[in-house]
Amino acid sequence: MDLPDHARERVVIREVGLRDGLQSIATILSTDRKREWIRAACEAGMREIEVGSFVPSRLLPQLADTAELVPFAKSLPGLTVSVLVPNLRGAERALGANADLMIVPLSASHAHSLANLRKTPDEVVAEVARIRAVRDAAGSKTLIEGGVGTAFGCTIQGEVARGEVLRLVQALLDAGADRISLADTVGYADPAAVRALFADAVKIAGQRFWSGHFHDTRGLALANVHAALDVGVRRFDASLGGIGGCPYAPGASGNVTTEDLAFMLASMGYDTGVDVERLLDLRAQVAGWLAGEELHGTLWRAGLPKTFHREAR
Amino acid sequence: MDLPDHARERVVIREVGLRDGLQSIATILSTDRKREWIRAACEAGMREIEVGSFVPSRLLPQLADTAELVPFAKSLPGLTVSVLVPNLRGAERALGANADLMIVPLSASHAHSLANLRKTPDEVVAEVARIRAVRDAAGSKTLIEGGVGTAFGCTIQGEVARGEVLRLVQALLDAGADRISLADTVGYADPAAVRALFADAVKIAGQRFWSGHFHDTRGLALANVHAALDVGVRRFDASLGGIGGCPYAPGASGNVTTEDLAFMLASMGYDTGVDVERLLDLRAQVAGWLAGEELHGTLWRAGLPKTFHREAR
To answer: What ipTM score was computed for the predicted complex, to two decimals?
Structure first.
């Protein structure tokens, strides 16, 4: 069918493969290749990229070059550059690098939070307040995103109460977070749970609700995206080749796959700005760089449908 | 959270791996192993199984034992036994075997229909009318299902108009089909297209709308199921280990994976009657029988979430 005359609704895909993906695999990509990846993603129409993480490089040597990648990515036209920061110290580096946005991860699961961040969720909220104060004192424009992980449960404590997730969303906003995201860190979500939780979170955060972050650990990531679309979410994290993963589920899929997500959204008539064919080319290139690592995704094998161009582009 | 007291809504998964799955792979399972598969699926709570196809065995030697499988499957308590029949001759064999339901495939794509069935879609409709007459004359209770394939386009002609699909749904009903199903034969569907087409088909067929059949060729099968659930579809075809596929997309996934679908539906709170853990055991067994063949699906690698039992069973 022909495209309607009116502009289609925008959905933004944020590429997180360079952070969430690369941190969970052994291969260390050179800074040059990461630059090539970022540039090609930008040329394919991606407009938001999480380029790395300001954590000590002895913990994540894969991401040690984040401070070099931020200015490079910011030099590309129209690109919003995100980084992950675990604490105030990381935030200070993000401010120094002039990142557009810094994501502070918080785990809604108390047990998971203690195991992974060595802080309670409320201690992370307090850290966000400190980051906000430092950011404001510096007169910086770097946005602060509170990323609420294990929002659908975790492998350590199991169940995470919806009320607790929503309490933390409100607490992060009160502490000064400019943006709120929800993450199904371990692939425990299902479309019904997504619809319910995201609807409530969007109600609380309004325009400050930012992104949905789904792992495909149990194959439901795209169905969960579809459920989140239904309650108005218009930004999703994704990882090229579906890299990333969960240490508790070896071999399981990582993040929702960027190219599959871009295909689904375009097919549905959303405007992602992304050229899926160029994304598939980039995927092939990155797959070559990551030879020996397990990639995921489905579209790359079957290719685009014969109906794709006329119907969706 | 605790289960609500009221009975949850029923969603039926029809296992088609023994037909759609086995017909597309080289390994020929022995009749004994197929019996074991059918028995174990039934013990895991599956209540509808497509056990084979009444096509000439020189065309599909993998399914040559269908006439033996029907009476076996019918001997199991509470199992609805389906077979595929390509024409009146196949239908007569299905009537002879006393199958509960026979699926007559029709391809909404004229080009695909000619290439695969050597008939136009309307010639298939006429065949359904003949099958109905013979069925009624025999006083048989075997139901006739018109399965409208390539409902979202095909690899030969590309686009298939929605109006043409709906016209064929109506024509099949007029010709005497008791049930109507829609199939995304080559993985061209997306959730928006599914919602639109299935809503219209359900409007036409009402209670006679039967099943959604989605291939996971491009990773969207579960998202498409989710979209169909939204418009009231409550029965889906699926294949254990995701076997089945598309000759035009080598290596691409086949049918939506039974165990992943059962997990998604149970997590969402639907009552499928299926024990997902037993299904995973059966998958492992079938995977052993099909060593060397490519299976699909995601849940089997990660296992069930810690939250699964309390939340969804």
So the answer is: 0.92
Predicted confidence pLDDT, tens digits, chain B (313 residues) = 444 444 589 999 999 999 999 998 889 999 999 999 999 999 999 999 999 999 999 999 999 999 999 999 999 999 999 999 999 999 999 999 999 999 999 999 999 999 988 999 999 999 999 999 999 999 999 999 999 999 999 989 999 999 999 999 999 999 999 999 999 999 999 999 999 999 999 999 999 999 999 999 999 999 999 999 999 999 999 999 999 865 555 556 789 999 999 999 999 999 999 999 999 999 999 999 999 898 999 999 989 999 997 444 4
CB B38 within 8 A of CB B301: no
Residue contact B220–A306, C-beta within 8 A? no
Residue A51 near chain B (CB below 8 Å): no
**Alpha-carbon span A252 to B260, nearest angstrom:** 13
The verdict on A159 touching B (C-beta cutoff 8 Å) is yes
| Stretch 239-258 of chain A: residues touching chain B, C-beta under 8 Å | 246, 249, 251-253, 257
Alpha-carbon distance A258 to B259, whole Å? Answer: 24
Query: What are the residue boundaries of the structural domains of chain A, listed by start?
Result: 12-312
Candidate from A192, A219, A305 with C-beta closest to B298: A219
B159 burial (CB, 10 Å; 0-12 / 13-18 / 19+) is middle
Query: Which residues partner with A107 through β-bridges?
Result: A149
DSSP string, B123-148: HHHHHHHHHHHHHHHTT---EEEEEE
Contact B303 A260 (CB under 8 A): no
Report the C-alpha gap between A70 and B298 in whole angstroms: 35
User: Class of B12-312 per CATH?
Assistant: alpha beta
Active site residues of A: 246
How far is Cα B244 from Cα A268, in angstroms, rounded to an integer?
Answer: 25
What is the three-state SS of chain A? CCCCCCCCCECEEEECHHHHHHHHCCCCCCHHHHHHHHHHHHHCCCCEEEEEECCCCCCCHHHCCHHHHHHHHHCCCCCEEEEECCCHHHHHHHHHHCCCEEEEEEECCHHHHHHHHCCCHHHHHHHHHHHHHHHHHCCCCCEEEEEEECECEECCCECCCHHHHHHHHHHHHHHCCCEEEEEECCCCCCHHHHHHHHHHHHHHHHHHEEEEEEECCCCCHHHHHHHHHHCCCCEEEEEHHHCCCCCCCCCCCCECEHHHHHHHHHHCCCECCCCHHHHHHHHHHHHHHCCCCCCCCCHHHHCCCCCHHHHHC
Contact B218 A263 (CB under 8 A): yes
Model pTM score: 0.94
